[in-house]
Amino acid sequence: MHRFSRMHLSPEAAMGRLDVIDLEEKSKLAEGISLIAVIDHRRDYLAAGYPSMFSYCRERLHMSEDRALKRIQVARAALKFPEVFECLADGRLSVSTAALLAPKLELETASDLLAMAAFKTRQEILRLLAERSRPVAVSVTTAEAAEGPTVQDTSGSHAPGHVNSLADLCAPAMDVAPQDLSASERTGHSRRGRVTQSEKGGYDVRLSITDEEHDVLRRATALLGHAVPSGDPALVIARALKHYLAHLEKQRFGTKPGAAAAGNGRHIPKPLRRLVFERDGGRCAFVGADGHRCEATRRLEVDHITPIAHGGMTEPGNLRLLCRAHNQYEAERVMGKEHVQEKRELAQRARAHAKAAAHASRAKVRDAATQVRHDDLYEGLRGLGYDVATARRGAGLVDTMPEAPLESCMRAALSLLARPLILRSERLARCSA
Predict the structure, then answer these.
(1) How do the domains of the chain map onto residue ranges?
(2) Cα–Cα distance, 286 to 296 (Å, whole number)
(3) Which of 54, 98, 303, 427 has the smallest count of CB within 10 Å of its CB?
(4) CATH number belonging to domain 270-360
(5) What is the pLDDT of residues 226-259, one digit of tens each?
(6) Backbone CA torsion sign across 205, 210, 213, 215
(7) CA 115 → CA 108, 118, 130, 136, 246, distances in Å?
(8) Rounded distance, CA 241 to CA 43, Å?
(9) Is 0.85 surpassed by the pTM of this model?
(10) In 324-405, which residue ranges form alpha helices assigned H by DSSP?
């Protein structure tokens, strides 16, 4: 008889014992969610060698991606609304149903919403949420007609709302306003692509691209017609990534390895950056107290082990790769959290002042007639297909040609904007020769 055999128990004893274990399991689940909330809020995962709470759950606790996402989402919501912990502990909510409610909880309505969702299934909660926010997307089948409408779940398998994508979890929150976004970035911050391991070997990549990106892919496929006659997007993208990788390495490390001489002050020469990157294996070098090394390979920064302010030198022995989260953590540990926060705020204010000054220097005081010509030139360039920034740059020529007619300004703008293409054509012609 194995140690988990309970065949000797009477039906009443077996069901009673199961009730006790079920209650204990739910209580332990609520306690586990509360510990995730504490570790996430205090960023304790950094000292353990993990760049984010998501990495901690995936790598240390061996959770699946979906399980980690939902637990972190629920933990963050429960930290604001502690009643969620009680709902988890007594079984009124599961992690999945709590994750559905998390982005909808508000201070005024949280208690009522939690009460209405108690002991409801995922489908019932979806219907509840849909009824509270019109319009409602419903999908009714014949078999389900007798039970009422079924709300279509369009949220995907992961927890919606507060945690929209892996990007929200794989990097600490930044107190920096988002910069001007491109058209493709403005379409949404949610994840538009996913890489999964294929059962047949290799990886499956699924992408959702904009019309502009599709046009770029189509043009690249046409230009590669001689090398990739099948037009297979996978081969086209693979070739593009190889070229782009070479461009990124050149941009960050220079064209050749070269001699890794010591830098001057805070400046780190590209050959020295390459040496540190290759030495650390392109991976964060932070090691936790238990010997775990951070596995982050994104958003890496070259860090001075002994800060310049404390007499550190810019030389290989005093440099290491750190992910952004651990770089900030080390700065706060060595320099003090208040000092780092003060420096960060000063830098943000300085950037804001510099941006305002640059904008003021570019802004010209135009009279009514010049402003009309500027707007007409801008609209004309936009009508020819130029993007907003390029059209503004071309329209700015009216300030340097105050007496010239609009037609002359348009010819000058087109000549200016076409100049890079002409130079590129000349370089290509020389290379072909």
Answers:
(1) 11-151, 270-360, 364-432
(2) 10
(3) 427
(4) 1.10.30
(5) 999 999 999 999 999 999 999 998 888 886 665 6
(6) positive
(7) 13, 5, 16, 22, 57
(8) 34
(9) no
(10) 324-335, 337-362, 368-383, 388-395
